[in-house]
Amino acid sequence: MGVQVIGFDKLEAKLTKNMDLSAVRTVVRKNGSEMQKKAQKNAPVDTSHLMRSIDLEVTDGGMTAEVEPTADYGAYVELGTRFMNAQPYLKPAFDEQKGKFKSDMKKLVR
Fold first, then answer.
1. Model confidence over 1-17: pLDDT tens digits?
2. Distance, first Cα to last Cα, the chain
């Protein structure tokens, strides 16, 4: 499961020209952390293993934040199976956070 941001290269070029990228790294980390908390809150709790396994990894010199579970069954819970209905926890967290992320990034380029 992945998310592709179209036009990121142009945005990165504009940001590089207009400002110090440390502010962008701060926004990426902050929004990644908020999404992690939302996904953990949304995760169905039986043993709490899934909730505790949702990690945040910041890569690409602070320009990428990845939130994903390390529990082997995380995708089955998110997407469901033929025996079990989906119980989405990542996508709702992403959908909620992406507007905030866009808003935070727009504030940086003003």
1. 556 667 777 777 766 66
2. 32
In one letter, which amino acid is 91?
K
What pLDDT digit, counting tens, does each position of 42-90 carry?
999 889 999 999 999 999 999 999 999 999 999 999 999 999 999 999 9
Q: What is the pLDDT of residue 15?
A: 64
Which CA distances in Å does 69 have to 3, 10, 32, 78? 15, 30, 14, 10
What is the token pair recorded at 90? Answer: 């990542």
Q: What is the DSSP string of the chain?
A: -----TTHHHHHHHHHHHS-THHHHHHHHHHHHHHHHHHHHHS--SSSHHHHHEEEEEEGGGTEEEEEE-STTHHHHHH--SSS----SHHHHHHHHHHHHHHHHHHHH-
